[in-house]
Amino acid sequence: MNKLGVHALVWTGGWSHDEAARAIGSSAELGFDIIEIPALDPKGIDIEFTAKKLEENRIGTTISLGLDASTDVSSEDKATVARGEERLNDALNVAIGIGATHMCGILYSAFQKYMVPPTETGIANSVEVLQRICERAAKHDITIGLEVVNRYESNVINTAEQAVAMCRRIGAPNVKVHLDTYHMNIEEADNARAIRQTGADLGYFHIGESHRGYLGSGNVDFTKMFRALAEIDYRHPITFESFSSVVTGQPLTGILGIWRNLWDDGADLCRHAQEYIRTEMKSAKENVAGRGTAAI
């Protein structure tokens, strides 16, 4: 069965003790299995306190992050790549310390809009760094997820096909594709087909609406996507992600372009998302099972 998660940024924009306790407690109270903790600043996370709150609330966790220009592992500058590897290792320290099962996100480049295409040297640098990160993560049973994002947030991986190719190039058993419905809705020609073609390489899945608001109120065809997930027998985390500048602060508000708010009540948003996802999952599984029975 898929573990259902929620991104911490629906609750809080930071990770002070009060913010961490509220985000973890609120997620657990609503019945989520995991909370995804943003680690853009890994050293700003109190590992011991976070681990304690996760244990107290009996909830699992994953972490996610994106690199910045000064830590871009797809750069051709050796010093920048070295800083990027250090940042990824700092984040991995957090994942290990709090018992996270996955470290996902834009781990292969900077989380920004690029004005030029990636270079082969830059991609090779990214691959080499991630090979070392995956090797270390494997020792702690942590999956590394390469998030597929739109062209305004990276120039390296914008489609599921590119992510699969990157996983093959890295060649580690614990590196997987991380798909996100918000980004897929921008870049993929056929979202369901992209899921089916990713198949066993899919290791993490973000659910987000086309405008980052309430699920079902935008133009993402979730029904087809959930059926595709059922067809490939996807059994890994499904995490709800949504943003509002009521909660997120800079630099994320600017990077993500959150100029209009479609919600201001994180609890109501999450209750709706949880019910929506569970309903879609149940319907998809019954649909796929019914087709199998009909074939017999």
UniProtKB/TrEMBL annotation:
It comes from Rhodobium gokarnense. Its EC number is 5.1.3.30, 5.1.3.31. Residues 28-250 form the Xylose isomerase-like TIM barrel domain. It is an enzyme of class 5 (isomerase). This is D-psicose/D-tagatose/L-ribulose 3-epimerase. The keyword GTP-binding does not apply. One of its GO terms (molecular function) is isomerase activity. Keywords: Isomerase. InterPro entries: IolE/XylAMocC-like, Xyl_isomerase-like_sf, Xyl_isomerase-like_TIM-brl. Coiled coil: none annotated. It comes from the Bacteria.
